[in-house]
Structure formats: C-alpha cells, structure tokens
Design a protein that fits this description.
6-stranded mixed beta sheet, 2 domains, 410 residues, Creatine Amidinohydrolase, Chain A, domain 1
C-alpha cells in the first residue's frame, strides 16, 4: 500500500463529502492496496470477493477482505494490518495438521464449492461497522459493478448512501508517481525488445500469428536475461501483416507476408502490474506508394501531436493538432475517435482521459499519455505509430526509443 496513493484517495473523498471508498474493480483494489489478487485479476467471476475499504478519516486504518488462500501474501505485500479472510475451496493447511485425529464429537468445518457469499457479506459489514461507516456516504466503482454485488452491498445497511467513484479514481490514477512511471518505462523497454526480435528473421509467407509468437518470445527472452524485469508478468500484441486489419487471433489467418507488405505492431508488456502500450510499423521490401504516402502523413501528425503535449494544454487540443494535419494533407475523410489515451493498470490498457475532440482536461505533470496515429486500410495495410509520453513540469520524456520511420525489412 502506497501512502501517497491512499492519502490522495482520502483527500478526494473529503472533497466529495464521502465517508469512505470501497475499491471493487481488480485495477482499483491493486491501486489502493498494492496487492495483485490472482483470483480477482484473472477470473471475472471473482469480482466482488476481494475488496479494500479506505475511510476518508485519516485516523481510521484501511481494511481489506480477501480469500484465505491469499490472506498471507495480501498482508505482507500491502502492509495492511486489518486483512479479513473468507474461506475458499482449496485445503491450505499443513499436512501434519491434517493428520491429527478428530476429537470426540469434533467435526471439521466444510469448505464451500467456491466461496460463501454470506461469509463475505459479514466480513464487509464488520469492516465497515468497526469504522462507523454503516450509516455513511460511500463511494465505490459502481460503473463496473456486477448487479449481484450491488444487490448485496445495498443490503449491508439501509442507511448507507452509495455514490459512483469511478471517474474520481481514473482521474487520480492519471497522475503517475515516480515508481509507476518506472514500471511503464521497463514495460516499454521489454516491448521494444519484443519488436526487434520479431523482425529479425521475418520470411515470406509468415502470418500475423507468426509475428505474434515471435514478439512474445522476444519479450520473454529479454525478461529472462535481465533481473530489472523481475516484475514482468505478461505481454500482449495486436499484429497485422499485409492487408490484414482485423483484431484478434481469428483475424490473423492472412495470406502470408509478401513483398511490399506492412507489418504492424500494437503491443505492450506488463511489469509490476503496469501495462504498457505502443506501436511501430515495418515494411517487407520496397513499400507501396499508397502505404508510404499515408505513413508519412501519419508520422508528421504524430510528431506534431507529441510536440503539443505540455503542461496546461487541454488534451482536446492534442487531438485537434493530429486531426487537422491529416485532413489538410491529402486525407480529408480520415476520422478517428481519439489519438491516444492514459494508461496504467487496467487489463484493457486504454484508460481515461482520452485524446479526443471534446476532452477539456488540462495536461498535468506526472501524466503518461499514449499518443497514437494509426490507420487500418485494406489497400495500403495497417499502420501504427504510438509512443508513451511522460509529462514533466518543464517538458516531456518519450519512453519509447525505437525510431519512428517506416522500418524496411530485407
């Protein structure tokens, strides 16, 4: 648990006249506690089973509910003292303890098939009751809450007033602390290592799936070779080869790499729970004129958009810079909903605020924005140009270091 993060949540609660925040989504439980629950972050059916209670009152400690399988690591990693555990289905006691004979009339408590909702409800009621919150105004992640969770939350106490805190958390998360930027920097390094590895030995006939496998292999190899990446957990990629512009494995069954085809990388890696994002485009042999022309305009738009990122500028202005350059330089019908976004810990790496036309949020130091100018065409091919931009008090830092040019693969 990071004290600066918790303090920022408390201040926002006080500003909103809320008595506490219950972190519900996997991302926000991780953000508030520093603990990544495997069950919560990997299985959507476990949403609502791992929670953190953050009171607005600084004299009240943070509390947490988690399954007994993870209670020990949760206490150790988060530093939260009041961690209350409910029973999960696995048996977790030592073999020696399990061999002890039952006493006269003694019965072992059965374990649930998965978990006992009534046990969880009592734990949450206790966490809130012990902090005097059963009659308060409580913020939580209502926008992404399961209906069943909301029903059970509503039955905790008829006196609780629930308020959506989703946008507040995204706003807080958009300003990164130094340790968060460092994790995104390491994730970016790994992603660039994966791209370099993937294009080293491309051959005619290779599919987007082949590019996917080579990219992931390169990321893993780089992570294995350097202890700085000990926090690496996964990589992701949306590749395209030639005229393939779809997203997902089912769209990667293309005709195979040929002369003049573009190879598009939209990809990232996760380090310490922070999920990077970025992209580059390569060409196999001599680029086709249509692809070269479109790439050139998108590259110029990307550079102009990155140059527009500075403290105090409204994010929507960055969108207008990119859009205006593209439409006035040969592509008057080109339209996108956004030219970038914040990012951090959501498994869907795009987080608010978005670099969109109507976004009035001012850029602030500490933000990390993904600035992108992609295109998906069936004649020129798919193009991605994307960098992570770290906003400093007096400028910006580009976390991506790979050249932006249309890289030619022999």
């Amino acid at each position: 648990m990071n004290e600066q993060i918790v303090s920022a949540i408390r201040r926002r609660l006080q500003d909103r006249d809320l008595d506490a925040y219950i972190a519900y989504t996997p991302s926000n439980v991780f953000y508030a506690t520093g603990f990544q629950s495997y069950f919560l972050m990997q299985w959507w059916r476990m949403q609502g089973t791992v929670l953190a209670v953050v009171p607005a009152d600084e004299s009240l400690e943070v509390g947490m509910m988690v399954g007994d399988f993870e209670a020990g690591p949760a206490r150790r990693v988060s530093g939260i003292q009041d961690v209350r555990a409910f029973r999960l289905w696995p048996e977790i006691r030592d073999a020696e303890e399990l061999q002890e004979p039952l006493g006269s009339g003694e019965k072992e408590m059965t374990r649930p098939a998965q978990f006992d909702e009534s046990e969880q409800d009592e734990i949450l009621r206790g966490l809130m009751g012990d902090r005097g919150l059963l009659g308060g105004r409580i913020g939580t992640d209502l926008r992404y809450m399961l209906l069943d969770s909301f029903r059970r939350f509503s039955e905790l106490s008829s006196e609780i007033e629930w308020d959506d805190f989703t946008s507040d958390m995204y706003e807080l998360r958009s300003i990164k602390l130094p340790f968060e930027v460092e994790r995104l920097r390491l994730a970016t390094e790994l992603s660039e290592a994966g791209m370099r590895f993937a294009v080293e030995e491309l051959k005619p006939g290779m599919s987007a799936t082949d590019v996917r496998h080579r990219y992931l292999a390169g990321v893993v190899q780089a992570a294995m070779d350097d202890e700085r990446y000990a926090g690496y957990s996964e990589g992701w990629i949306l590749p395209a080869v030639g005229a393939g512009i779809g997203i997902g494995v089912d769209a990667e069954r293309d005709t195979g790499l040929g002369e003049g085809d573009l190879i598009k990388f939209d990809c990232g890696a996760t380090v310490g729970g922070y999920r990077g994002d970025g992209g580059r485009t390569f060409v196999y042999g001599k680029p086709r004129p249509a692809a070269e022309r479109l790439f050139g305009v998108l590259q110029e738009a990307h550079d102009k958009a990155c140059d527009a990122v500075r403290p105090g500028v409204e994010i929507g202005e960055v969108f207008r810079v990119a859009q205006d350059h593209i439409t006035t330089n040969g592509y008057p019908r080109f339209r996108r909903g956004h030219y970038g976004h914040s990012l951090g810990i959501d498994t869907f790496h795009e987080e608010p605020p978005y670099v969109s036309e109507g976004e009035r949020t001012p850029i602030q130091p500490g933000m990390v924005l993904a600035i992108e100018t992609p295109a998906y065409t069936t004649d020129a091919g798919a193009i991605m140009i994307e960098d992570l931009i770290h906003v400093l008090p007096d400028g910006v830092e580009r976390l991506h270091r790979m050249p932006h040019r249309l890289g030619v693969i022999a």
